[in-house]
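One thing: can you check what follows?
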Amino acid sequence: MLPFTDINELSITNVPRLVIGAPHGRSGKTTFTLGLLRAFARQGMAVQPFKKGADYIDTSWHTAAAGCTSRNLDSFFMRKQEICSSVSNQSFGKAITIIEGAMGLYDGLDLQGSSSTAEIAKITRSPVLFVIDATRMTRSIAAMVMGYQHFDPNVQIVGVVLNKVARARHEKIARQAIEEFCKIPVVGAIPKDVNLCIPDRHLGLVTKGEMVETDKLLDYFADVISANVDLQKVLTLAQSAPDLPLFKETHVPNLEKYTLKSQIPKIGVIQDAAFSFYYPENLEALKKLGADVIPINSLIDSHLPGDLDGLYIGGGFPEVFAAELEKNTALRSDIRKAGEKGLPIYAECGGLMYLGRSIQTSSQNFEMVGLLPLDSQMESKPQGHGYTIMEANSDQNWFAEETEIKGHEFHNSRVINLDPYVKFGLNVKRGHGIDGQHDGICYKNVFAAYNHIHALGCPEWAERMVTLAVSYNQTKWTQITQAADY
């Protein structure tokens, strides 16, 4: 059992689970994980996927492969209790939980490996299944594995999967060396296969919604994994995981103060191919606080619902769908008018771009909502990438002043032609934001930033969103009543 102590720790029933780690990125973790998820799901097993780190795209593929919503685990903006509670809550009733790592196993933000895959494994006491690109290596793989085994004694590597194996002799030597010198099993050997990949784009993996033959591809991954990996052995290793630690709840909102007795605040969420970057916990947080979440499609819906009390626009690829967004002039007009009337609107990254005047690509300009005095220009390289730390100032009404907000950003666009008198709600302490110093453009009840947040790491966000929606609802109905009396 891995050592783990905390005064708030509470032991719960064991959750069969594995972290999928690797020596480095591009080792094959994601395709292996997807094939494993689909292979177990095809056997009728309930599988719960997780992704280490701030990631929307891998989780969308996980969800498609497992038939169960994938979640993110990130120790930069989540505390230990939130990470373990998420694993515990989402894994209830599941046969196995799979946590896909990111980058190399020990790669983190500093010398201590903060926010690494290894840190998630230690926090959750999860055994690690190690995926290795075996290209041009045989016996040397054992030396590599042994180094990873002993680098941190609190990380338990329990098995190895060899990827990109050339031939039977290659597999035999590598397998024998690992099992002899490292004393752990090789549970699979996957042959070289150019079809074991997902097309790339500037933000990483292509979203699963853009792949017409998603299921066909996932089934192929599952076929390869089923033929070359001992699934029963993988399950046995997952079942060897010690009890998952759980912690006392540290943030319990007063739900009664957020809802009206007569009216439930209605918050629209633009969720479609152009805007697909939403953490499920963010939407769930709004619902738990009493909001009625209304889905809106920016590509086909011609109008906003008339009774909205708030609007949430997440990130995505608005530049890819810019022509379709421009064509939907009626919806863009509705959003602009609603924002001018004071509708609370929270926009992240792609949502920020959408609320501006235009999106400029290398070949064309596309008109957007026009609510904010800015244009977005696409660049060939990321303009902001990585974890962020923001501090809220007094020029916004979404966060308490001086609140430290941890999040992340990854955008290839930059803001240009920004009105010099615009107000910013966030000061950048880490990251880039809009201009390297500020983020969070504020206009009336609109808050638009490149910064992405996760509700588990920033629960105040959902509480404020619902509070503003309730306030807007009350103001709206007061105006309607006064007009009727008049």
Notes: The longest strand covers residues 157-165. The chain has a mean pLDDT of 91.
